[in-house]
């Protein structure tokens, strides 16, 4: 039986390498998205604390100087929250892009794998036919050499 050789093996190796790189890039993008979500949650928590402090401060005596500093800090936190939201949206878009690239690379690799599976199956069928033909030939030669058990 002849040894199986897949002619597209180099293509499969290259596509497997690309799929691996795409998977790593997707994992990195997911990590960046999760981190940006955490940053956004922390920023929103700080904004909520500022809002609570501003609301609580209004129940007592009003001090314009203290309110000015508090409002300026609150505005900075609101700007930081908006920036964190934009960063989260950008990270989500990058993650979606990397996911699409990974899926495309995976599909291309699967095409080559399916072709290899089909080629292996065809090789196996051909080898089985060849082996059966050898067995049939061997049995035919043996039957032709045998002397009959009964003579007429």
Which key terms come to mind for this protein?
single chain, 152 residues, mainly alpha, Helix Hairpins, 2 helices
Characterise this structure:
The chain has 2 helices and no strands. The protein is mostly helical and 152 residues long. The protein has one domain: Orthogonal Bundle (Helix Hairpins). The longest helix has 82 residues, at 64-145. The radius of gyration is 36 Å and the shape is rod-shaped. The model has no long low-confidence stretch (mean pLDDT 90).
Query: How big is the Rg?
Result: 36 Å
Main pleated sheet:
none
CATH architecture: Orthogonal Bundle
Count structural domains. Answer: 1
Category by helix and strand content = mainly alpha
> How many beta-strand elements?
0
CATH domain topology: Helix Hairpins
Taken in chain order, the helices and strands follow as HH
Give the topology, please.
Elements: H1 9-57, H2 64-145
Helix pairs in contact: 1-2
What would a concise description of this structure say?
The chain is mainly α and 152 residues long. The chain has 2 helices and no strands.
């Amino acid at each position: 039986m002849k040894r199986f050789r897949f002619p597209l093996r180099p293509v499969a190796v290259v596509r497997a390498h690309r799929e691996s790189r795409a998977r790593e890039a997707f994992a990195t993008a997911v990590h960046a998205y999760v981190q940006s979500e955490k940053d956004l949650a922390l920023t929103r928590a700080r904004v909520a604390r500022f809002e609570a402090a501003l609301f609580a401060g209004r129940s007592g005596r009003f001090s314009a100087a203290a309110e000015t500093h508090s409002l300026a800090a609150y505005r900075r936190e609101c700007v930081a929250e908006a920036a964190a939201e934009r960063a989260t949206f950008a990270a989500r878009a990058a993650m979606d892009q990397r996911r699409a690239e990974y899926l495309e690379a995976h599909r291309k690799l699967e095409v080559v794998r399916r072709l290899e599976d089909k080629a292996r199956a065809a090789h196996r069928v051909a080898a089985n036919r060849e082996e059966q033909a050898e067995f049939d030939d061997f049995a035919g030669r043996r039957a032709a050499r045998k002397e009959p058990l009964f003579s007429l």
